[in-house]
Design goal:
453 residues; 3 domains; 12 helices; alpha/beta; FAD/NAD(P)-binding domain; single chain; five-stranded parallel sheet; 30% helix; Enolase-like, domain 1
Amino acid sequence: MSYDADLFVIGAGSGGVRAARFAGSLGAKVIVAEAGPMGGTCVNVGCVPKKLMVYASEYGDVVEDSKGFGWSFTKPTFDWSALIANKDREISRLNSIYQHLLERTGVQVVRGFATFVDEHTVKVGDKTYTAERILIATGGQPIRPPIPGAELGLVSDDLFSLAKLPKRIAIVGGGYIGVEFAGILNGMGVQTVVLQRSAHVLRGFDADIQVTLREEMRKKGIDVRVETSVIHVMKNDDGTLCVDLDDKTQLTTDCLMWATGRAPNTAKLNLAAAGVKMRANGSIIVEGDDFQTNIPHIHAVGDVIGTPELTPVALEQGMAFAKRMYGAAQDTVDLTILPTAVFSQPNVGTVGLTEQQARTAGHDIEAYRSRFRGMRHTMTGREEKTMMKLIVDKANDRVIGCHMVGPDAGEIIQGLAVAMHAGATKAMFDATIGVHPTAAEEFVTMRHPVTED
């Protein structure tokens, strides 16, 4: 049978673009469909604009801290509209780059939302396309919880285009998105409350990260309330919001943001027409290193399949898929040692097992931990603390977990991830000469394991 394309990719986000580019460069005839801006969540309403906003929010502290080093400034002011305009210009530039990357490898871009007609056919607008293989890379989207009045709250996507900055905000959820936006908005002068239903922020992270970050957020003036749930939201006559909490108290705020999770973008794909199986939450079930669904020639990568919702994961999956299908390589994606960063303030960086995970998995471990005030703050007077931690398997001396809360944690953890992939032992860390004076050298100077708290 003759098809319009060898590969039809639904979604031009991180995973879809990477797969399309590599498949195109390997000689495949590729069509990509995208209804929104090129680049998907990461470029438009995720990692990139969020990191730009993190940078923006840090300058107030930089000015304040500079006094300890002899600098003097008049009181700084912040212009939200200028930030948004500059951010939009940068995102537009990146959108164009993604478009050009695809075109340069001969990929045809179709603008519009694609839905399945059958297992080899999709429809975009009023036109249908057939393909030998179809790759679903539609990502995910933020969700609101089933709470009365939930529609009155914003989601993370909305924060990137707010007309003006609120004076007060309540952020519901203490995961990645919640703590990152709490730092951003607090740094811009917004009175910020974080409402987390469990006992800790960053559920699933190492306990020392959870405790340290919560303490540091509170030092910065963020009101972090744990074991607190929202049960109802109402709008007051003056336009503010009244938030009912499960402890029978109320919170009045100008703005509410839900950071309570994301859902895969599958509802409008008409997957039933192709016979593709999903889980109850809408994520697509795939098997094997080529990310195959139950339909052999339909594949899926990225947030839509329920793997860790991280841009580098989608990128690796997209590349591995393309190389396996259209090249000679048999690439696999190894998620056993997965580094990640949270651009909270201070930053979090982590790779490998948490202490609890290591113990639960049956490892006999030693944990090494250091808490200290960074050199910069000996002059600023700020009481911010950095925490670093290593988890070591006593059976073979292998480092199986590295965790950090502190400035540039994401930058530092990347190098440690390489070391862990190479099988580094604690003895190798100890034998490594530190770069002085840096915070990072602490990872190679921790000599004594911690005792049980």
